[in-house]
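User: quick one, sequence for these C-alpha cells?
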C-alpha cells in the first residue's frame, strides 16, 4: 500500500476524511480544491450514527468538534406572532440523537477541523484553486488513471481517483462519462444559508423555526461569533417535477439574481421574514443549493470511485455528513485490506457501503413537506401535531423508528482495519 498514489477531489468533509485514512494506510495522497481556500460558514450540519462511530476512530476529532459546536440547545417552533407552540431539544445522548444533534456544527468549522488534522501529514498534499481537465482510463486494462489539470498542476498518473466534490460533481461526470445531473433524484426542495448581523434570538441558545404557505420554511440559530445563522427552504409538492427549475435558472446567474428570486419567494411570509430578507441581500457569506439525492448503480468504475454526496447524497434525511465520514474510512480500509488489489478493495467498499446508503437514503414519511405545508389547513394541522409531539415528548421514544438518521450509533458497526501510520 505504501506506493499507492491517490488523488482526492474536494476539500470539504469527505475529501479530508478520505485523505486522512489513506495516509494512515501508507498511501501518497493529493487533495485538490477548486476554490482558492477553504470555504468558511455554510449550513449547520450534524454528525450521527455511523458518523459518530467513525469520528471516535480519528484521534482528537471528537474533542475538536465539541470545541466548535454550534450553540444550539433546542429548536422552538413559532407562529407568525412569535409565540412558540413546541420546543424540541437534544437528548443529551450522542449515541441516540433527536432532531437537534449533539454534534451540531457549521460546515466550514468541520471542514477546517479535518483540514487541520491532515494539512501537516507528510503523506498528504493540498492544492487549492485547481480542477481536473481530463481523466484517461484504459478501457481494457485495470491500471492507473492519467489526470490533466486546469490550472497548471502537472499531469500525472494515479492509482485511484476519488470524487468528493458534492452532489453535482463534475468529477463524477468525467469519471462515469455522464452528465452532471445524471443520477440525481430531485426531492423538489432547495435551501439557502447565510448569517445576519442582527441578533433576532436575543442571545438565546434555543433556535427558532417558522413555516408559511406555500412551502416556505425559516430557521434561526446562534453562531459562536454572536451572529445569527439563517436557513431558508423552499419546499414544493413532490409530484411537481419542474418546481425547482426557476431556482436552478436563478442560481446560474449569480448571487444577486438568486437572492432576488428567494426574496420574492418569501415576500409576505410574515414573522421576522422582512428583516431576514433585507439582511440576506447584504450578506457576503451566502450559499444556496438544491436538495437532491444521488443514486448510482455502482460507486466506482475501474480506478475511479466516489465518496460522500458525489456518490450517495441522501437529500433531506440528515445523514449526509455521517455517510461522507464513514465512506472515507471504509474506502481506505477496504483498499488497504486487500494489499494492492485495488479492484478487490473497491468491490468490498461497495459491499460495505450499500447497506448504509440504502438505510440513510430512506426519506421518512411526509419529509420534507411536513417542514412547510402547501396549504393553510395543512399548516394548522401540522402545528397541532408538532405541539402534541413536543408536549408529550413522544419523539424521544419514536424517532429511532421514524428515521434511520435518529438510530442508535451501534446500529451500524464498522469493521476494524490494520493501519500502518
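Assistant:
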Amino acid at each position: 500500500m505504501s506506493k499507492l498514489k491517490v488523488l482526492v477531489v474536494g476539500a470539504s468533509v469527505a475529501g479530508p476524511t478520505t485523505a486522512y485514512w489513506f495516509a494512515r494506510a501508507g498511501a501518497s495522497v493529493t487533495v485538490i480544491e477548486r476554490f482558492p481556500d477553504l470555504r468558511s460558514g455554510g449550513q449547520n450540519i450534524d454528525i450521527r450514527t455511523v458518523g459518530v462511530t467513525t469520528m471516535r476512530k480519528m484521534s482528537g476529532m471528537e474533542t475538536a468538534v465539541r470545541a466548535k459546536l454550534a450553540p444550539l440547545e433546542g429548536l422552538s417552533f413559532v407562529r407568525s406572532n412569535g409565540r412558540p407552540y413546541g420546543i424540541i431539544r437534544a437528548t443529551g445522548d450522542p449515541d441516540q440523537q433527536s432532531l437537534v444533534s449533539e454534534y451540531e456544527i457549521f460546515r466550514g468549522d468541520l471542514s477546517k477541523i479535518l483540514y487541520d488534522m491532515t494539512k501537516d501529514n507528510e503523506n498528504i498534499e493540498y492544492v487549492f484553486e485547481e480542477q481536473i481537465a481530463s481523466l484517461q482510463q484504459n478501457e481494457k486494462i485495470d491500471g492507473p488513471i492519467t489526470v490533466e489539470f486546469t490550472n497548471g498542476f502537472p499531469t500525472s498518473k494515479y492509482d485511484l481517483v476519488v470524487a468528493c466534490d458534492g452532489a453535482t460533481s463534475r468529477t463524477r461526470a468525467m469519471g462515469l462519462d455522464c452528465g452532471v445531473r445524471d443520477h440525481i433524484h430531485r426531492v423538489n426542495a432547495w435551501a439557502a444559508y447565510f448569517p445576519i448581523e442582527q441578533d433576532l434570538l436575543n442571545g438565546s441558545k434555543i433556535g427558532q423555526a417558522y413555516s408559511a404557505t406555500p412551502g416556505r420554511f425559516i430557521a434561526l440559530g446562534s453562531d459562536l461569533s454572536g451572529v445569527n445563522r439563517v436557513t431558508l427552504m423552499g419546499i414544493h409538492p413532490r409530484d411537481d417535477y419542474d418546481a425547482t427549475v426557476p431556482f436552478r435558472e436563478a442560481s446560474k446567474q449569480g448571487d444577486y439574481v438568486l437572492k432576488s428570486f428567494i426574496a420574492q419567494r418569501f415576500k409576505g411570509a410574515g414573522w421576522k421574514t422582512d428583516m431576514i430578507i433585507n439582511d440576506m441581500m447584504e450578506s457576503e457569506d451566502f450559499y444556496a443549493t438544491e436538495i437532491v439525492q444521488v443514486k448510482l448503480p455502482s460507486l466506482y468504475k475501474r480506478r475511479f470511485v466516489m465518496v460522500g454526496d458525489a456518490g450517495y447524497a441522501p437529500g433531506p434525511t440528515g445523514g449526509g455528513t455521517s455517510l461522507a465520514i464513514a465512506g472515507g474510512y471504509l474506502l481506505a480500509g477496504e483498499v488497504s485490506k486487500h494489499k494492492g488489489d485495488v479492484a478487490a478493495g473497491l468491490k468490498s467498499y461497495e459491499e460495505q457501503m450499500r447497506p448504509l446508503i440504502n438505510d440513510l437514503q430512506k426519506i421518512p414519511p411526509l419529509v420534507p413537506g411536513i417542514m412547510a405545508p402547501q396549504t393553510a389547513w395543512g399548516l394548522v394541522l401540522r402545528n397541532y401535531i408538532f405541539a402534541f409531539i413536543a408536549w408529550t415528548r413522544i419523539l424521544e421514544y419514536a424517532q429511532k423508528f421514524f428515521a434511520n438518521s435518529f438510530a442508535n450509533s451501534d446500529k451500524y458497526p464498522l469493521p476494524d482495519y490494520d493501519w500502518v501510520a
